Structures are given as structure tokens and as C-alpha cells.
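Would you be willing to look carefully at the protein I have copied below?

:::
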Amino acid sequence: MALQSRTPGTKSRRRIDSSHYLYIAVIGAVLAGITVGLAAPEFAVGLKPIGDAFVLLIKMMIAPIIFCTIVLGVGSIAKAATVGKVGGLALLYFIVMSTFALGIGLVVGNLIHPGEGLDIADSTYDAVTTEANRAPASSAGIGSSAGTSRSSTHRSEVRSCGPSIAGNVREGRFHPWVERVRPSG
């Protein structure tokens, strides 16, 4: 027993895994962000591009991580029947959780009525200004290269959507799924 270095009666110290430091660092960063946001809000607003870049980097990594996890999980299973069982369980889990989320959304929507106090009936949407901000004027848009006028192209788009939508567009109401519509007039 000469190889044993600990003395009798003392517990061996459990070593902290290196991934625990990551958790501690994330919690520390959240607390630092809250502190900076409360103490110096102007400075915190200046740090927004760093936060946005971090979120975009995280979003960029999600798809490859999920793909690799699924490929490694399926690849590690030797029997085809087990793959089918795992796939069926994953599909069942997806259906149950989606139904659960839909139920929560319906309950919250019917009980709390989010957006109830907003007065957006008189809101207007200027598609030409939005289009001008999205793309340069020299780029080919709807009707620009075909020799047709913008307004005639938009009227045909509105007519194809149905009479109630066409009336709302003529009145200047915004519909997010009817883009590039200019009220006639």
C-alpha cells in the first residue's frame, strides 16, 4: 500500500471538470452584463454589436452541431431495428412537444390576449420606401426590366389576392404577406 498517497480518514478531493468553468464563466458574464446595463446604460448600448455578433456565431453553430449529433447517434447504432425505434421515438417526442407548445400558445393567446391594446388600424406601410431601403435603385425590381409600370404590376398582384385584401391595400393597410404593394391613387 505504499502507492496510495492519501492518509486514512481523509477524503480525496474531487477535481472540478473543466466544463464547469464554462458554466461559471457564462453566469459571470450574465451578471456582468446586468451590472453594466444598470450602471452605465449608454456604454452598454455601445456593446450591442458585440452581443449581436455573439448571437450570430451561436446561430451559425447550431445546425452543424445538431447534424453531427444525429449522424453520430445513428452511426453508433449497429442494428437497423434500433435506428427505426429511435427515429420513431424522436418523431413521437416531436409530435407530443409540438402539441404541448401549441396548447400553451392557445391558452396564453385566449387568456392573456397579447397585443390587445395596440391601435394599429390606422398604420400604413410604404412599400416603395421599404424597397428603396432594401436594394439600390439600379437593381431590377418588379416591372422594371419587363417594361411595365410599377403600379400596374402591383395592382395585378393585389387583384390576385382577393377583393378584401385589394380594398385594404387601397386604403393603405399593411399586410405582411402581401409585399411590394403600393396603394393606387
